[in-house]
Predict the structure.
Amino acid sequence: MTLLGDEGLTVEELTVWHMLQRAQVRITRHLEGELLVAHELPLASYEVLMQLAEAPERRLRMNDLADRVLLSRSGLTRLIDRLQRDGLVTREACADDARGLYAVLSDRGAARLAEATPTYLRGIRTQFLDLLGSGEIAHVRAMLARLDLTGAPQGCS
């Protein structure tokens, strides 16, 4: 049996797609809830702080950061505004592009990230990794690598 007309998706194919969506939403909701309760830090804010912490000099171009955290440019701008008000990030001009900006992790942001990281990692462990058997992580990674079509973003903005 196929669903969705000419696209020819089987029930099994559509079921796998829905399972992937539900798993992502379930895990994300759990992480969001745990970070909010324990640290008053939304998951999107945590992801921004984490990306900046892992970047050279703890800074990324706004466009690059938006791509890494899967936010629109305007959504990231609003989030960075909030993080800057809280003293967790700063903005710096991009030397080779007067219109470009960097988001920079502050010391306060690094400390907040360090406080929240055990909660985040525990959530990933309990909601995802512990549910996989030995050897399955490498298999899941290989499958997801085929789906990850992102490239390394370049340029200031």
In short: The chain has six helices and five strands. Confidence is low (pLDDT under 50) at residues 152-157.
